[in-house]
Amino acid sequence: MRPTVRLALPVSLLVLALSACAPAPIYKPTANNVAVPPSQVAREPERYGSADVIWGGRIVNVRNFADHSEIEVLAYPLDGSQRPQANDTGNGRFIAAMPGYVESLDYPSGGLVTIAGRLNGTRTGNVGQAQYTFPLVSVNQSHVWTAKEMSGGHPNVSFGVGVGVIR
Description:
single chain; alpha+beta; CATH 2.40.50.140; five-stranded mixed beta barrel; 4 helices; globular; OMP_Slp; signal
């Protein structure tokens, strides 16, 4: 047997085993989904109309109004399980609009969230002293990630060569 053929099976099994450790995405994209970051939608809102999005990031704050609530989110890229990758660079901010009252303890400032919803225009506001254009998303589904969920699905496998001492 050729060496490349002998290595192919173990490598294939290793890749399969490691990919099986990652949880599946929580939301299924619709036919109307666009895979663009909020910063791009803010620059060209007319191009995206009322497309569906699956976005996530870090919760900045929650504002409750008489008939709806708004969650300001600093967007991050999502991994294959749709978890926000908070160690990456931000992709802009967006406002997630939800019907009714949202308890700020359920959507804590600094928490990580993934939402699925439909674009609903933009709104100009401020981030500090700077003027900012926020894409608005009418939320259909949302998920606030726990620390356990964020660390889950990452296999604790390491490879190395050397000598170790355990006391």
